[in-house]
Amino acid sequence: MNYLLTPFHKHADLGFGAMADSYKDAADYLEVNGAELAYFNGHLPINFLRRHAIELYLKSGILIFHRVLKLSFGTKPWDSDPMVRVSGTTWRPLYKTHDIQTLYGYFSQLFVEHQDFLASHTRTNWKFPSELADLINTIKVFDSDATHSRYPVTKDAAIDQVKGSFEQKSWDELLAMEGKEPVKAFLIVNDSDEIIQSFSLNRSPMPELTAALRAVAEVFHDCHTALRGELTSTF
């Protein structure tokens, strides 16, 4: 109840988990109730919300471990500005780290380092799905710096060209789609009514990214709930 009815700064994870829940809930609602958005780039805000929720869940888990177990951030005390260990003795500020794979690497490392504590103090099975690392990698490939679904132009021009709802197809390709599913197309013709460019609607471009974001958000939502319930009740 403290988690629900107190401001963020009173939470064991400084509100990262509560905010992650809000982003995930918004994505889930849009996916179920915002069908009209799916026609024109509606997948992008949904993917963005889930991607951001995942980042916040990972940061929440890191903060819960450090603040509940009073783990130092390298040479800095547990209650100082939070950090993420990226390798050996190298630490990076948590608030400036947005790479999912980096956050997940340290997050999972904390579970390994403190598995004995978790085994003796909690009742949860902390084993993660075997495919989780591959799903995290899929998100990394498409969205390494949290800009994929935020901006039309990013560092990856190739992906930028195919992430929108409309994709360029030849007339022959459009004809080949006939009979498989309804085709919504935009044709540009010249003065002789010859087709010079054609585009078709794809309501779910890059479905592997959307599926990975949905699955990973669910895993970390459940993990966050367990961490909060098992470790922060007396914080």
**Main beta sheet: strand number and arrangement?**
3 strands, antiparallel
* β-sheet strand percentage: 5-15%
Query: What is the total domain count?
Result: 2
Count every beta strand, where a strand is a DSSP E run of 2 or more residues. 5
What is the helix content?
A: 40-55%
- Mean pLDDT across the residues is 90
Q: Could you say which structural class the secondary elements and strand pairing correspond to?
A: mainly alpha
**Spans of 5+ residues with little confidence (pLDDT < 50)?**
none
Helix/strand order, N-terminal first? HHHEEHHHHEHEEH
What is the molecular shape? elongated
Query: C-alpha Rg, in Å?
Result: 22 Å
Q: How many distinct helices?
A: 9
Widest beta sheet: strand line-up: 3-5-4
Distance between the termini: 13 Å
